[in-house]
Amino acid sequence: MLLRPRYGRIGLLALPYAWAFELFAPFLEALGLVVVAAGLAVGTVDVPFFLMFLIVAYGYAIFVALCAMAVDEWAFHRYERWRDLAVMMAAAVLENLGYRQLTVWWRLQGWWSSLRGERQVWGVMHRTGFGQGS
After folding, report:
1. Which of 10, 34, 55, 61 has CA 20 to 30 A from 94's CA?
2. pTM of the full predicted structure?
3. Half-sphere exposure (CA, 13 Å, Cβ side) for 106?
4. CA distance readout (Å), 63 to 52, 87, 97
5. Residue 64: how many CB atoms within 10 A of its CB?
6. What is the DSSP letter of 116?
7. From the CB of residue 80, how many other CB atoms can be counted at a distance below 10 Å?
8. How far apart are alpha carbons 82 and 105 in whole angstroms?
9. Is 17 left (phi over 0), alpha (psi -120 to 50) or beta?
């Protein structure tokens, strides 16, 4: 399908986008983290500029997430209590501070497993419902 006009917008736009930005994103993010850490370790990165850039980059990511949540809440009113909305907003902020970096590691592990041809097994899921179990 990739880059074949026969498959229309999926083959010409959606699939190339997925390959270029989604498939290779974990490598680019991991490479960026390693290069910045190495630059900080050897002193080639200007620390004040790095900190300002970090604040702006993560601040913007958090801002976009919170705006998306505000629009979603305004349009669909998914949360009955303000507390639920506050918890979601806190999760949107905390996602960028550690969890995002963990997902890079997990996605790289998935890539490696895929390249080795490992079969992915989720295991057995036991449903207990609300108020039962743990």
Report:
1. 34
2. 0.71
3. 6
4. 16, 16, 14
5. 11
6. T
7. 8
8. 34
9. alpha
Return the structure tokens found at 14: 């959606």
Please state, in angstroms and rounded to a whole number, the distance separating the CA atoms of residues 99 and 55.
17
Q: How many CA atoms lie within 13 A of 132 on its CB side?
A: 4
Q: Which two tokens stand for residue 4?
A: 């074949």
Which stretches in the chain have pLDDT values below 70? 131-134
pLDDT tens, 6-24?
A: 999 999 999 999 988 888 9
Helix residue ranges per DSSP H, 1-134: 8-9, 15-17, 25-42, 47-76, 82-94, 100-115
Question: What is the CB-side half-sphere exposure of residue 14 using CA atoms within 13 A?
Answer: 6
Contact 104, 30 (CB under 8 A): yes
96, 62 Cβ separation under 8 angstroms: yes
